[in-house]
Amino acid sequence: MKISWWKILSIVLLAYAIIGGLLLPVPELTQLGETIRNLYFHVCMWFAMMILFTFSVAYSIKYLRTSSFQYDIKAKAYADVGTFMGLLGYSTGAIWASYTWADPNNPAYASFGSIMREPKLIGAAMALLIYGAYFVLRSSIIDMDQRARVSAVFNIFSYTMLFPSIWIIPRLLPSLHPGQEGNPALNFNDIDSRMRMVFYPAVIGWTLLGAWITNIKIRTEMIREKNIL
Amino acid sequence: MESSKHFNALLKKEFLLDFRQQHSFFGILLYIASTVFVLYLTMGDIEAATWNALFWITQLFICINAVAKSFLQEAKGRMLYYYSTTSPVVFILSKISYNGILMIVMNIINLILYTAFLGNPTSSFWQFLGISLIGSLGLSLVFTLLAAIASKAMQQASLMAILGFPIIIPQLLLLVRLSKTAFSEIFRDGAPAQIILLLLALDISVVILAMILYPFLWKD
Predict the structure, then answer these.
(1) What's the whole-number average pLDDT of chain B?
(2) How far is CA A101 from CA A1, A93, A98, A157, in A?
(3) Which ipTM score applies to this complex?
(4) Where are the domains of chain A?
(5) Which of A175, B38, B87, B90 is least surrounded by CB atoms within 10 angstroms?
(6) Which is nearest to A11 in space by CA: A212, A222, A197?
(7) Interatomic CA distance for residues A101 and B124, integer angstroms
(8) A203/chain B closest Cα distance in angstroms
């Protein structure tokens, strides 16, 4: 079995992120407590999702330029794994929110209505709904060439509409979510320097893991579609 | 020169088609009338915020129905004829302009019906009219390209909603927010102008994207 360097890097970084993430010192904040360590998992999922979706769109553009079927397979696989990462981001966020945002006097699900109005959550919901629509669109076109072409067009269109929205919505609505000014987690003042030591490697590690899973998906799909490539 | 001639011919054809096959045009009118009437019967007295939200939701559904027809009624053979005679950019631009004009007409009718049945809580009617015109233009632009995409798939009408709703969320939020100026809510200085500029920038980017992407959808 051949393991290329970036796969080893992914393992090393994730091991560091998990061990260091659970053991290294973190700032003590009354609201967050030890749940702050979820940053290394929750925020990284969204980073990985966005990066994977960006790859998906890049392959969609490549498909439209070349009409080579392998790029369609790649675009689909990156969108698949990106959506999966988004769902993980939601579930880690739900766990986090149930300890920090949810009203302690009521059961956690009773706060759902007020939590879902968060601008960041709206942006995330938009991204997942758009890619859900992308999969529905794909499955409702039978002809292969047409499916690849139409879904590539939709992918590019929705992605370019999604990104301005992610910048616009937070400026329209009030939010409890950190990173209100500017782009979350990229701002150097937002995050403690001790946490940065784990956070950035963790982002790279999770993204590489996502790319690894995608890679396996692409290869199995290529084998399955061998006779038409 | 050639392309502007094509553009005019295509636009003229859309209006002629509406004039000759009146069922689709009056179908949408009836759709608006019955929606507003059902709202009138079910809602009774409503507050300004609810009125505003309902207005934009109705507007969204009208847009889906009005715009969807423009691609659904094109027969396969006719598309082939367009393909051999004109360019995709001219074709999509004519569709966009037609849908924009159609939506503006529908918007005015919708607003009149709303005022008649559900009252008008706006403090400045003309301001709200202007905002709603900007809004319906933006909605029609986005849904024109989505209709072109959905027309290639099965179950086109329901697919339009699935594809469109997540994309339209930010515009809808901006519009609901902007229309509050017409309900005499106080805004920060320059905020309404900023939102209008944002909406226009979104509209322009949609038109540019449509011009770039439609040529790929067009060949079968």
Answers:
(1) 86
(2) 46, 10, 6, 34
(3) 0.87
(4) 39-192+206-224
(5) B38
(6) A212
(7) 39
(8) 27
